[in-house]
Sequence to fold (325 residues):
Amino acid sequence: MNQDVLTVRDLTRRFGSVTANDGVTLRVRPGEVVGLLGHNGAGKTTLVSQIVGLLKPDAGSIEVAGIDAVADPAAARRRVALQAQAQAPLDGLTPRTAIEIAGRIRGLSALRARTVAGELGEELDIGDWMDRRALPEGGGLSGGVRRITAFAMAIAAPTPLVVLDEPTNDIDASRRRRLWAAVRRLGDQGSGVLLVTHNVVEAERVVDELVVMDRGRVVAAGTPSTLRGSHDTDVRLELVLAPGTQDPSDPLDRVPLPVTRRVRAGRRVLLTLPAAQAASAVAWATGRREQGDLDSYSLAPATLEDAYLAVTETTPLAAPEPTHV
Fold:
């Protein structure tokens, strides 16, 4: 018997001549947070729309908590809590009321829904806004508070699968930290979580597994350490090329260091090498900067972003600029 809360096999979805999902396969187990990474247009939201029954795949299968989501999308949807990428329609409601309604729809008693709303307001640090009404055209509540409220609505009652599509958009750094902690708590309490994001650095802190999509296909999957593909003692030498200069690391044999990975994105070049070579790397980069090849350079521990760049071969999108709630 399949114990996964989500199993996607060979899923394909086309829009005319565009293949948005191309043979996608992934799984989410109970108690596991799976990060779905990819730049905008990679096919992540199209995949989510099929999981929750808003789109029907052209080929492949989706199973949600034992339910065939293609054959019976309504039954599968009852086992999924979704925070969509778009803002939730909150106009006329306070965050407290919206969270309570979401809990009641999911089967909580009135008392339990009220209690959960209060607890989530405190956990996510939106207590001062809990009883302020959302007004049309963005009035009453900031985009960040609306986004956090939508997240709280999605997790107000336990479900086998929670799908979060870019949950931290518009949220300031302090509350993003609280939201990530709540995501980790969901997994620890037994829910399966599919976390859709392009924020590589922050996602690494809370996920158990990662699936990387690029142009509709799964191009890498595994634990963060597996995908990072480097030892904990590896370091990253980041070079920022001077405008109009030749890349001093191309070809790679021009670098007098044992480089294990090289990725270039625009004027940015990332070289991964053993930490024991740090002093030599700094000396070499200093020399290249003095010769005018580099604007600057920095040395830091190797990160998941390096691996993400390597498998997607594209410039990573920065985390959304926070707006204070």
Notes: The mean pLDDT is 88.
